């Protein structure tokens, strides 16, 4: 048996035949060690190009060079060599990358104090496999489409461990919405929400990347869903998802509305804003109510990263209502991740899950295309202008005329 391996050698493809008697070259009988000085045949040292398209020697990526919650101040664009995948890795040509509120927490060094600049930015991407290591080739091949939740996504090419990659049917940005935003809502509500049919659920920032999923999963559980948002357009979007009571807090007083329309209180709150909104959510809890903290975006751009919260009477309020506050950080729930992703992908395939994507078509400066657009996309999200998950198109589909 012989096998054909294509490797890149000075810009052209070289065909190598392996096989024959153990320890000998199939064609000449020469011991293979004699030619390892000429060419290294391991997958980990050479690329197999996707559809024959050439992989450039250099690429652009975003690097955190200074710790700061100001993303533009913390992050810079750099031109570096395209990385080489290790034995168990994939080299992914990124087509789309996802923007998360936590991107600026990461650039501020809040998640891992031991991490010192420079380090790579970005958490999630989707694209094609253009190179891979030998072990990784047991599960993947060049041309496969994959999504991933791993650091270093804000780059034209990213090396991702094969075990952390998720096969997807196509390079659609909708799949990207599930990796962090969808998974956060799915797992948090399932593990910490204890949702029961007929309960009332409040979702803050409901028209955002993760809020849109919390609304849908709460509805699927048979709950009455309230969603806060900042515009009539977003309120209309929430209605289309089945949200029973969208509240545009720029035109309605949220506290008064909740007191008047929900005097018995809220059973479950999916909370991502923090500060005064969190205080209001605590005061609005029903007996045995559960408040899930998935973030506090209102404070991320400050020096401390934490919005002011008056919690002096919190123990009393929780005791009086037998209520609870529960924190959720996705990396602590990776044992639930595969099931969540698989379930959501099935829902999406069956048309039972809306994955709204905001690619910046209505943003100032237009659609988010190219890695440099990540800065605009972060600004767009923090200005509260996004509808759905903010996604940047890193590169359009590669077109190759190569006959390789």
Structure explained in plain terms:
The chain has 404 residues and is an alpha/beta fold. It has two domains: 58-171 and 356-393, Quinone Oxidoreductase, Chain A, domain 1 (Alpha-Beta Complex), CATH 3.90.180.10; 181-336, NAD(P)-binding Rossmann-like Domain (Rossmann fold, 3-Layer(aba) Sandwich). Helix content is 24%, strand content 26%. The strands form four sheets. Strands 5, 7, 8, 9, 10, 17 and 18 form a seven-stranded mixed β-sheet that branches. Strands 13-12-11-14-15-16 form a six-stranded parallel β-sheet, with helices on both faces. The protein is globular.
Percentage of residues assigned to helices: 10-25%
Rounded Rg: 24 Å
Q: Kindly state the number of beta strands.
A: 18
Q: How much of the residues is beta strand, in percent? A: 25-35%
Give me the CATH superfamily of the largest domain. Answer: NAD(P)-binding Rossmann-like Domain
* Poorly predicted segments: 1-46, 399-404
In total, the number of domains comes to: 2
CATH class of the largest domain: Alpha Beta
| Backbone structural class | alpha/beta
> What general outline do the C-alpha atoms trace?
globular
Number of helices: 10
Task: Please write the string of helix (H) and strand (E) elements.
Answer: EEEHEEHEEEEEHEHEHEHEHEHEHEHE
Q: Which whole number gives the mean pLDDT? A: 88
Gap between N and C termini: 23 Å
Any guess at the CATH architecture of the largest domain? 3-Layer(aba) Sandwich
Biggest sheet architecture: 7 strands, mixed
Task: Enter the CATH topology name of the largest domain.
Answer: Rossmann fold
């Amino acid at each position: 048996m012989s096998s054909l391996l294509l490797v890149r050698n000075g810009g052209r493809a070289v065909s190598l035949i392996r096989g024959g008697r153990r320890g000998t070259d199939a064609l000449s009988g020469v011991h293979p060690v004699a030619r390892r000085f000429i060419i290294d045949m391991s997958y980990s040292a050479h690329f197999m190009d996707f559809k024959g398209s050439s992989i450039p020697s250099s690429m652009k990526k975003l690097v955190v060079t200074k710790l700061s919650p100001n993303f533009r101040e913390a992050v810079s664009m750099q031109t570096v060599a395209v990385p080489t995948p290790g034995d168990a890795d994939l080299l992914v040509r990124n087509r789309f990358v996802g923007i998360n509120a936590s991107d600026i927490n990461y650039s501020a060094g809040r998640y891992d104090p031991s991490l010192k600049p420079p380090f790579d930015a970005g958490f999630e991407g989707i694209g094609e496999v253009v190179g891979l290591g030998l072990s990784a080739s047991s599960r993947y091949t060049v041309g496969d489409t994959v999504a991933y939740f791993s650091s270093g996504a804000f780059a034209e090419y990213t090396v991702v461990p094969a075990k952390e990659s998720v096969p997807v049917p196509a390079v659609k940005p909708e799949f990207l919405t599930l990796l962090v935003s969808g998974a956060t809502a799915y797992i948090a509500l399932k593990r910490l929400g204890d949702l029961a049919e007929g309960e009332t659920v409040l979702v803050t920032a409901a028209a955002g990347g993760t809020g849109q999923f919390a609304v849908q999963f709460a509805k699927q559980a048979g709950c009455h869903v309230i969603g806060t948002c900042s515009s009539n357009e977003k309120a209309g979007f929430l209605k289309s998802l089945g949200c029973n009571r969208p509240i545009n807090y720029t035109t309605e007083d949220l506290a008064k509305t909740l007191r008047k329309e929900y005097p018995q209180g809220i059973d479950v709150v999916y909370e991502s804003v923090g500060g005064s909104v969190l205080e209001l959510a605590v005061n609005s809890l029903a007996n045995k109510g559960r408040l899930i903290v998935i973030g506090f975006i209102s404070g991320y751009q400050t020096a401390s990263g934490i919005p002011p919260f008056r919690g002096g009477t919190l123990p009393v309020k929780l005791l009086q209502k037998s209520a609870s506050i529960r924190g959720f950080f996705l990396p602590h729930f990776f044992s639930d991740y595969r099931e969540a992703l698989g379930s959501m992908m099935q829902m999406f395939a069956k048309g039972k899950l809306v994955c709204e994507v905001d690619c910046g078509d209505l943003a100032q400066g237009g659609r988010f295309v190219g890695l440099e657009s990540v800065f605009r996309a972060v600004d767009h999200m923090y200005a509260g202008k996004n509808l759905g998950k903010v996604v940047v198109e890193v590169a359009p589909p590669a077109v190759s005329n190569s006959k390789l």
